[in-house]
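Structure tokens please, single chain.
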Amino acid sequence: MGITFIEADIADPGKPKARTRLEFLIDAGAYYSVVPASVLRTLGIRPHSRRTFILADGSKISRRIGDVLFRFDGRQGASPVIFGQKDDSVLLGSVSLGALGLMIDPLKRELRALPMMLATQAGR
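Here you go.
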């Protein structure tokens, strides 16, 4: 299976005009996106919580979480991100993809519009 990268802009949701562009590895198997902590600090993004994650080898790590505004191909969406450390990859995870209204085609490794469904009550 191939690897898919995209370039997307990120910003502090409270100051969306100041932004930076990063190259992200799309990892639909990852829940959260990962952005280097130094980039987030430069944009003025502060962590609001800390979470523990289990790595593929079963070990546990703790990382800070903050919120980022993503912009890609005319789309915009806010999403929580992990404050990445030195050896962490820059990833675009499934929550951020969903916030952008996108999904990855698992066979073609291409981004596609996410079918957006809204449930309503019958008769309204």
